[in-house]
Amino acid sequence: MRKKISNSLSTKVFLWVFTALTLCSILIYGIVLVFVPQSYQLTGSKQFETNAGALFSALENKSYEDGTTLITNFCIENNAVAVLGNEKNSVTFGDFEAIVDDLSTAQTYTTDVTFSEDKASYTLSVISLSKTASELFSLLLRFIPLVLTVILLLSALSALICSRVIVAPIAKISQISKRMTELDMTWRCDTDRKDEIGVLSSSLNTMAARLQSTMEELETANQQ
Questions:
Q1: Contacts of 187 (CB under 8 A, 6+ apart)
Q2: How many Å apart are CA 27 and CA 21, to the nearest integer?
Q3: Domain tally, the chain
Q4: Cβ atoms 143, 36 nearer than 8 A
Q5: Tell me, what's the pLDDT at 172?
Q6: Is residue 165 part of a domain?
Q7: Is residue 104 part of a domain?
Q8: What pLDDT is recorded for position 105?
């Protein structure tokens, strides 16, 4: 098997291109898998912090009723829960059961609030329920088999095309060189390429024409 591969330029090019494309694609997906959820989490955290600051500012000089309405709307719009209370009573907003196990790691912001009709000080804590980063990471992990299959198929197809495009003219030139060793000059490299392979083909055509002319002159001289 190794000997067959070492003797076949087409197979070598296919394996090189296939390996390079596969490794690069896997590396890129790995980078996406690691950094995209983190970046998304960071963006979401900053947005939640901004929205929480806006809520705290909006609660200034509001009545208790208007304040609780703002807090309720905030929890709905930002997928969050909140606790508003003091030493006398406490009110919760949102579904606390959803984060009962994640309170220690949840994103939380706290401030003191005083309502217009009541000078008593309240403590307001808003807690984000968003798990977008972990959910996105889990989703990307689930797609790994599909992505890997697509990567392998596209890499194989691209490698096959590259090996054909690169190796086909070289294989043709190799066959021509064998004919040259047998002093057969009745061939021409037909190519419109302008790259190095095209230059090589043109040079072979010129060399074959000159050799053919020289051989004919020698044959004529020998007959004379």
A1: 176, 179, 208
A2: 10
A3: 1
A4: no
A5: 73
A6: no
A7: yes
A8: 57
Q: 111 lies in which domain range? A: 1-157
User: Would you say residue 169 lies in a domain?
Assistant: no
**Residue 217 has which token pair?**
């002159």
Tokens matching residue 66: 């208007």
In angstroms, the CA 217 to CA 21 distance is 53
189-194: which pairs have CB atoms within 8 A and are 24 or more residues apart?
Answer: 193/169
Q: Are 98 and 90 in contact (CB under 8 A)?
A: no
Which one, of 25, 38, 3, 37, lies nearest residue 154 by Cα?
25
- CA dihedral 155→30→101→80, nearest 10 degrees, is -90
Question: Has residue 115 been placed in a domain?
Answer: yes
Whether the CB-CB separation of 40 and 202 falls below 8 Å is answered with no
State the pLDDT confidence band at 35, using cuts at 50, 70 and 90. Answer: confident
CA angle 47, 53, 58 (to 5 degrees): 125
Distance CA 71, CA 198 (A): 73
Pairing of strands 118-128, 80-85: antiparallel
Arithmetic mean of pLDDT, 80-96: 83
- Give residue-wise pLDDT tens across range 186-196: 666 666 666 67
For Cα atoms 65, 69, 73, give the angle at the middle one, nearest 5 degrees: 170
Instruction: For 126-159, write each residue's pLDDT tens digit.
Output: 888 776 677 778 888 888 899 999 999 999 998 8
